[in-house]
Amino acid sequence: xxxxxxxxxxxxxxxxxxxxxxxxxxxxxxxxxxxxxxxxxxxxxxxxxxxxxxxxxxxxxxxxxxxxxxxxxxxxxxxxxxxxxxxxxxxxxxxxxxxxxxxxxxxxxxxxxxxxxxxxxxxxxxxxxxxxxxxxxxxxxxxxxxxxxxxxxxxxxxxxxxxxxxxxxxxxxxxxxxxxxxxxxxxxxxxxxxxxxxxxxxxxxxxxxxxxxxxxxxxxxxxxxxxxxxxxxxxxxxxxxxxxxxxxxxxxxxxxxxxxxxxxxxxxxxxxxxxxxxxxxxxxxxxxxxxxxxxxxxxxxxxxxxxxxxxxxxxxxxxxxxxxxxxxxx
Amino acid sequence: xxxxxxxxxxxxxxxxxxxxxxxxxxxxxxxxxxxxxxxxxxxxxxxxxxxxxxxxxxxxxxxxxxxxxxxxxxxxxxxxxxxxxxxxx
Lengths: 330, 89
Description:
The structure holds two protein chains of two kinds.
Chain A: H1 2-9, E1 16-20, H2 28-32, H3 44-52, E2 56-60, H4 62-70, H5 83-98, E3 106-107, H6 124-131, E4 137-138, H7 150-153, H8 171-179, H9 198-211, H10 218-223, E5 228-233, E6 236-240, H11 244-251, E7 258-262, E8 269-274, H12 278-290, E9 300-305, E10 312-316
Helix pairs in contact in A: 5-6
Chain B: H1 2-11, E1 14-19, H2 26-35, E2 43-48, H3 53-64, E3 67-74, E4 77-83
Parallel strand pairs in B: 1-2
Antiparallel strand pairs in B: 2-4, 3-4
Helix pairs in contact in B: 2-3
């Protein structure tokens, strides 16, 4: 937002790009969970674009982004976040996007030293080189710490009016935001990607392990954002909704998964991923009963619909908490 | 003016986009992709279930020069009708 604003201040025509990888935090979780219903439903990229008065283009990169997540050339950060590869990928996509549309250069809000993996002095040239943008990549917030880029050398922008921010502190950015009269802004980078989240990354690794292959579809990574995930046996996993918002979301997946719901008591909808046998189905039913209002009842009726078959009902005793080992939770 | 509006209503094609079950920002992305193939004056009715779309699709329209014709809500479903503007998006 600030980098774009700095460019606008220099009279440069700016348009925004927002890449949808499937791992974006904002929007989804707020939309799903009831407890988040009071939070504003704005999409931050749209809000920034509208605040700045620029156009915004969404680019769906779910498919090509898989290679970045699955085989990052520069490895992962603390979790499954391939930040450096991700940055090069997105700048590269922006560069590809701009060329046929008559734009001259790509602008990012990167700051040297801001992030431990992807925004270091030695990685800044890596992003420029591997993205293909080269010296058509301008970082207005720290440009004065870097060699002049083409837009600066050509006088398209005034290097003297660019900034020399560095390090992890956000105070210079906050001061600049105040200078521009910007009082509200989106959360800083990192918090907007599920791959930086330890719990989410554990669920993704579990998915790969259980399938014996490092791969995913969009539905897989969306489901990892929702519900309690339990793996009682290596051959199946349960995703149990935590509240009505998640129940509603999971209903959209009923036809793709074996699913369970309680009939005799209020309870959650649960999706079963894997290849369960009859004993596994009973165990799954007992687990779902445990998370229902019938958790203290002697028996709970659970409807099980194995994918592609007619529903049937099992009457089971809810599994007591003492029989649910902590390691079942992913 | 009234004749002009009436004429536009007669010629305006209404297209449908089913974005139900999709979460932000996918309904906006699908809307963007669909609008890119429509002509100025044509209308698109986007059906969605993510409550965020009620603010996101109008915001996307404002940014890109399209016009919101109406928003209908029925239980968990939202239907947003927009008219494609003259500029490219």
